[in-house]
């Protein structure tokens, strides 16, 4: 079979705001100078749509749209629609566009009305289409494409009373700048609406961050009777009370229970497991600790939908893995994420630095198996324990999602 090669497109759409200075000298027993009101003239991108789906995250600032796109099949078409708004009340805008020409492999067209002035406070839509017109047989390559949109002021006789479209603002914000550097970094707390996440890894443009709290789902353990009662009116969102099992550690082996424990759920249930394997032969049956058929995955997927409703532009919503926890300082040989604590009596060696404290402020399930067994999953407890738990266990572990997002959102 002939393999298809990919052309990766890095596209930058520039909107350059130009302003022609307007001056005049009038002599009436002296000089009076008429100056243009440059502060009022403001042309900007107010929306962007990628292949029919609104994606304002492509707008990096008022005058730049940037995207990456892979295209490999002849006839494939990438469509970017964008809105250009004249935010001025005193000036109309003459708008012109100059785009990269079509290439041997890519057909590039841009539709935008350049003939008619963009009136003050009004918005005009443009459509850029990129089509693969010839099969590409070389190694994967990037092709840079750019359009420059120039807006120049045109005088009006009266001030417009219209209301221009809002400028695009990121739904995300940095709520705790851990190193005070003014940009998102590992250790920072980032927030989308009501939901906050600790950044624990950044690779290139990709940010991995873990929920500040567990999700408000599942049940509550009120006291040492270990009876689990369902949460009344679960929100499915993070909640400061949803920390799962909460312990105070005075020393290794000396731990105080702190009730209530809110947001506790089993990794899966026997009913869920049996339903997933109904009709399958023994050799084809999935394991109880398979995340794809777990009960906990439903909470994570529902949370992803709620984040999308908040305008989060989330790449992935999932649970954290063993490898990720190890990368931030958790040690499976010591069964611990907490600095200086060794919960394995057989493990030797000095104490260790451990993971950041925010990684074990709640008790939660991971998506990784424990010890190669079919019925256990790795967990993290709020006193820093990092070990295994049986999948049907219900009393102290909750759902603490991880998200992956683009750094460019900040």
Summarize the structure.
This protein is mainly β and 410 residues long.
Task: Describe it.
7% of the residues lie in helices and 39% in strands. The radius of gyration is 28 Å and the shape is elongated. The chain is built from three helices and 26 strands. The longest helix has 14 residues, at 296-309. It has helices at 270-276, 296-309, 322-327; strands spanning 7-18, 24-27, 31-34, 43-50, 53-54, 59-61, 64-71, 77-86, 91-99, 106-111, 123-132, 141-155, 172-176, 189-192, 195-203, 206-211, 219-221, 228-230, 247-251, 254-257, 261-264, 316-318, 364-369, 376-380, 386-390, 402-406. It has 410 residues and is mostly beta strands. Strands 13-14-15-16-26-22 form a six-stranded antiparallel beta sheet. Strands 6-7-1-12-9 form a five-stranded mixed beta sheet, with no helix packed on it. Residues 1-7 and 15-33 have low confidence and may be disordered. It folds into two domains: 7-155, no CATH class; 195-409, no CATH class.
List the total number of helices.
Answer: 3
- Counted up, domains total 2
Instruction: Give the structural class.
Output: mainly beta
Taking pLDDT < 50 over at least 5 consecutive residues as the criterion, the unreliable ranges are: 1-7, 15-33
Rounded radius of gyration (Å): 28 Å
Q: Main beta sheet, described?
A: 6 strands, antiparallel
Portion in helices = under 10%
The whole-number mean of residue pLDDT values reads 86
State the end-to-end distance: 43 Å
Strand order of the largest sheet: 13-14-15-16-26-22
- Quaternary structure of the protein: single chain
Q: What series of H and E elements makes up the topology?
A: EEEEEEEEEEEEEEEEEEEEEHHEHEEEE
Strand segment tally: 26
Strand content: 35-45%
- The 3D shape can be described as elongated
